[in-house]
Amino acid sequence: YRKAEPMWNVKELNRLLTKARAIGYEVRIITWLSKESTAEYDELVRITKRVWLEMMGLPYDHFHGVQYGATKADSIRRYLAEDETAILFDDNANVRKGWTMGEAIDPIETDILDFLRGLVG
């Protein structure tokens, strides 16, 4: 996980996420842990993914490292008011299909940076 290369221009992504947070958006990282794992390994994966986020300087409000295959919407459902929606960026079609919290976007088909530019103005 530490060697993963960013898929987008990190400097621009950081700028847009910072701007989104400044106007009231909350950034949550919801990531699956390893497919086959133990509790100890899960914790190491969580730590490593957080370290990577810090190395990239990505601004976020909350980190959710969830079991592989878990419905990611379940990770934040309790944090949202009934009238709130959330936007998910995920390359997995099944994850997007299970996202009942608002808009689910395929980052392969939609440029995240362009989407965020439209969101924050």
Describe it.
The chain has 121 residues and is α/β, with parallel strands linked by helices. It has five helices and four strands; from the N terminus they run H-E-H-E-H-E-H-E-H. It has a two-stranded parallel sheet with strand order 1-2. The protein is globular and about 45 Å long. The relative contact order is 0.18.
Overview features:
single chain, 121 residues, alpha/beta, two-stranded parallel sheet, 5 helices, 4 strands, 40% helix, globular
Number of helices: 5
Shape: globular
The percent range for strand residues is 5-15%
Helical residue percent?
40-55%
Tell me the structural class. Answer: alpha/beta
Radius of gyration: 14 Å
Question: Taking all residues together, what is the mean pLDDT?
Answer: 92
Low-confidence stretches: none
Strand order of the largest sheet: 1-2
Number of strands: 4
What summary fits the major beta sheet?
Answer: 2 strands, parallel
For the terminal residues, how far apart are their CA atoms?
32 Å
H/E element sequence: HEHEHEHEH
Topology:
Layout: H1 10-22, E1 28-32, H2 39-56, E2 62-66, H3 73-76, E3 86-89, H4 93-97, E4 102-105, H5 112-120
Structure described in brief:
With 121 residues, this protein is of the alpha/beta class.
